[in-house]
Write a structure and sequence with these properties.
Order of helices and strands: HHH
Number of strands: 0
Shape: elongated
Strand content: under 5%
Radius of gyration: 24 Å
Distance between the termini: 29 Å
Structural class: mainly alpha
Helix content: 55-70%
Length: 114
Amino acid sequence: MSDKTPAGRRRPPAVLLVLGGIGLAVFVVPLTGLVLVLVPSTLAATFAWSAVRVAMRSPAELIVGTLAVLLFVSLWIVGLLLIAVTAAWRAAVWSVAHRSLWPRPAHPTTLGPG
């Protein structure tokens, strides 16, 4: 891959793109979003798992144990879905922010008559 942009200027090193200007914000903002989804999801699943452990101590409470397991599983699945969506959003932010690094064709093609 060439060091030069299509306009003939040298490309800055990738480290400068990540750490300089918008690059740091592109790193910090999605990371903060991921943490804001990950921490509450993990805490909710932890408390639900504690409820499952308490409910399983008494074999006579079958309905309470079943409901505790259903609560845990549903919180776990919702947490995983939220984390997956946040991770996909984070990847999209990085891709759009660093579109100057995308490969470009050497010779642009023309579409249509010409």
